[in-house]
Design goal:
It is built from 7 helices and no strands. It comes from Turicibacter faecis.
């Protein structure tokens, strides 16, 4: 099995538990506070991982690659908004309906990446993305 596929599957399993644990964890908390707590825990964990891997030797390169940093800032803001909106939706919605709609990000990512990166997609890929979109609508409206 390809290494990227193993890590992608691990990401999917991890993301699933993020949604499940968040639904349980926001029971008595506001979505904003829950998002903040999760972000702080995530930051501490990731700094520890980067430190243990020796990644901080690249800090000086942040100054050299300002465009990369600007896009990472944008990604951080979009990620925080995604978590916040997900938590708001989970607070009042059913997890089994909220999660598939959140995963519409897959469809949006494919469409935007085709436009921006000029990536090629096969007919099987197109059919798969369309089925994801249709499946999301069926689950959300069930």
């Amino acid at each position: 099995m390809a290494q990227w596929l193993i890590f992608a599957l691990l990401a999917a399993v991890s993301a699933s538990f993020v949604t499940i644990f968040t639904k349980i964890g926001i029971h008595h908390l506001t979505p904003g506070l829950a998002t903040s707590v999760r972000a702080v825990i995530m930051a501490i964990f990731l700094v520890a991982v980067s430190f243990s891997r020796g990644d901080f030797h690249q800090l000086k390169e942040l100054v050299m690659y300002k465009r990369d940093v600007a896009f990472l800032i944008g990604a951080g803001i979009c990620g925080a908004l995604s978590w916040l909106f997900l938590n708001i939706a989970l607070k009042t919605g059913k997890t089994w309906q909220v999660a598939p709609i959140d995963k519409l990000s897959v469809v949006i990512t494919v469409v935007v990446s085709l436009l921006i990166f000029q990536e090629e997609i096969t007919m099987k890929g197109i059919i798969g993305v369309v089925l994801i979109a249709i499946g999301t609508v069926f689950v959300a409206l069930a």
